[in-house]
Write a structure and sequence with these properties.
five-stranded parallel β-sheet, about 200 residues, alpha/beta, Rossmann fold
Length: about 200
């Protein structure tokens, strides 16, 4: 499994940190992806429900690495960065997001560290919540976790509060100022990838 090969268009892997069909973050992630696409990226938007994983357990890993963990590792290897829209649960990021990152970071089939898949790649993060802070505390935790894995997390971030009034449908953020801000996060990821490539 090799690292992503630089190409004219940066490739980004995008997902929402929620499985709920009506999730505000599932509605928000395409807005973030649109910003990256407008800046010249190719975006692969996945649903984590299609990559179901058990809670990380070293005994499960020792018996056999789950197929979906290997699939996610392969996707990470093929992309230059991440776009994540996360809910906030009890002041932190969801177990779904942490568990996904934990499995991807496990050793690869060839024995190399899975954390190598994240090294020098770029991430952009946003959140949405029905509360007034918009999931801001989850972004603080997620930013730290991604940085520890070796990702450069762009400084721009957006927390969409009162999301029930602003995210009526998939990809529809009716607050123009916040929509543009979310799209700028995606664009910032693309710019940072180009800087990293130029060395």
């Amino acid at each position: 499994m090799s690292a992503a090969i630089p190409s004219a268009a940066p490739r980004l892997l995008a997902f929402a940190g929620s499985l709920r069909q009506g999730s505000f973050n599932r509605r928000l992630i395409p807005v973030l992806a649109d910003g990256a696409r407008a800046a010249g990226a190719e975006v692969t938007l996945i649903e984590l429900r299609d990559y179901a994983l058990p809670i990380y357990d070293g005994d499960i890993e020792a018996e056999a690495m789950p197929d979906n963990a290997r699939r996610l590792q392969a996707l990470m290897a093929e992309h230059d960065g991440l776009l994540i829209s996360t809910p906030e649960y009890n002041g932190s990021m969801p177990a779904l997001v942490k568990n996904t990152l934990d499995w991807i970071s496990r050793p690869l089939a060839d024995g190399r560290s899975g954390t190598a898949l994240f090294a020098d790649k770029v991430a952009g993060i946003v959140s949405a919540s029905p509360g007034p802070l918009g999931g801001l505390r989850s972004l603080l935790v997620l930013r730290d976790a991604l940085a520890k894995l070796g990702l450069l997390v762009v400084p721009q971030q957006v927390a969409v509060g009162q999301a029930g009034d602003k995210l009526a449908d998939y990809g529809q953020l009716n607050d123009e100022r916040q929509r543009e801000a979310v799209q700028r996060v995606g664009a910032a990821v693309v710019r940072h990838i180009k800087v990293v490539r130029e060395g």
